[in-house]
Amino acid sequence: MSIEKVLVVGLGYIGLPTAAVIASRGMDVVGLDVNQKAVDTINKGEIHIVEPDLDIVVRSVVMTGKLCATTEAESADAFMIAVPTPFNEDNSPDLSYIQAAAKTIAPVLEKGNLVILESTSPVGATEKLAGWLKEARPDLSFPQDKGDAADINVAHCPERVLPGYVLQELVSNDRVIGGISNACSEKAVALYQTFVRGECIITNARTAEMAKLTENSFRDVNIAFANELSVICDKLKINVWELVKLANRHPRVNILNPGPGVGGHCIAVDPWFIVDSCPEEAKIIRQARLTNDAKPFYVIDQITKAADEFKRPVIACLGLAFKADIDDLRESPALQIVKELASRDIGEIIAIEPNIHELPANLSKEGVQLATLEAALEVANVVVVLVDHKEFKAADSTQFATKVVIDTRGII
Ligand code: SAJ
Prior knowledge:
This protein is an alpha/beta fold. It has 16 helices and 13 strands. The chain folds into two domains: 5-198, Rossmann fold; 240-407, NAD(P)-binding Rossmann-like Domain (Rossmann fold, 3-Layer(aba) Sandwich). It has helices at 15-24, 36-43, 54-63, 96-105, 125-136, 143-146, 166-172, 182-192, 205-236, 240-247, 270-277, 283-307, 333-344, 361-365, 373-379, 390-393, and strands at 5-9, 28-32, 67-70, 78-81, 114-117, 153-156, 175-179, 200-204, 314-318, 348-352, 369-370, 382-385, 404-407. The strands form two sheets. Strands 3-2-1-4-5-6-7-8 form an eight-stranded mixed sheet, sandwiched between helices. Strands 11-10-9-12-13 form a five-stranded parallel sheet, sandwiched between helices. Strand 12 (382-385), helix 16 and strand 13 (404-407) form a beta-alpha-beta unit. Residues 120, 159-163, 215-216, 219, 223, 256-257, 259, 262-264, 266-267, 322-323 line the site of ligand SAJ.
């Protein structure tokens, strides 16, 4: 049976662009979300998240009737689940959103349907999803029991796009596709090939789950290495940026950049899923998480020491986002650092974030001011670079000559 209609569950940073891109290929797409406001926004042809060019694609597919949003499940040929998989306080994965998605789509499932889990998931989650669907629909057969002959196919295909480049990477990245049976994989490949230009590589569901976790853990471990080096270099009075540049001249060395910590919703989360599955074995992966989580506190200490040299210093904090040239402040080490500084009352804090127009309420309540770089530099005693936004990289470095500078990104 060919796939003509797709229901995407979860219209966030991954679900909405995916739904829009599939719709732009001429398929009928229904987006399902629990957030009525998001649904209404999308149905007006507008978007509720920030991602370059996404507004244009969404507007066009909504206008042509290829994409519509709803809060109620309806039948389709394929279902794609792109809901959050956060972690609990004890760092164990929280699969409640996937379970809720299973409960929502189960009543409308029909023989021949394909269900794809896109959410980053701990190993075994796709099998769990298939189990929840089976529990809700004992009248249908599932691949964990019937293999290729099952009524319903279930596969994992982790999203791997980089925020800020989602529309390009959705199409150009290779996709790892892990079905519970071969038939599941093949059916999923057929769907992805309608909009992916990269290669669709088949494996099993558990390996696909682990592949995604491995990619982000690889980055986390390597950033932790860079962050550890930066602390060692401070102690040994060596410029870590010069050191990394020199070491990277070696043809087989590629050290990542130290920073104020690791933010975002992926790299700082996914490694915990591996640690939770194999707590005894995942030693380096766990330590990398701890090292990266400790880095903001190291930066706070550096700033506090610098501030101690002044009676009532003005501290300019450059950047609040979790990485360069985006407006996303969630899980941002820069934001964490500024919040903590404000609560310690060690001076006047000015935040410079060219990608936002208003400070988050909890910062303004603490007395933090939002200013332009120029205005902040006129009064600042201490300058802290927390994000390597293009506006900061372009700044004239002589402006910083009379300031105490703490540069966590190595741009000055
Ligand atoms: N960072 C450093 N030093 C570096 C690189 C990054 O400190 O050398 C910091 C950034 O400042 C940021 C954090 O790490 O705070 C993460 O940024 P990122 O750009 O490395 O990654 P994300 O979280 O925006 O997106 C990642 C991507 N994964 C990989 O590159 C392996 C993306 O492809 C995934 O789709 C995404 O996670 C996800 O959804 O899992």
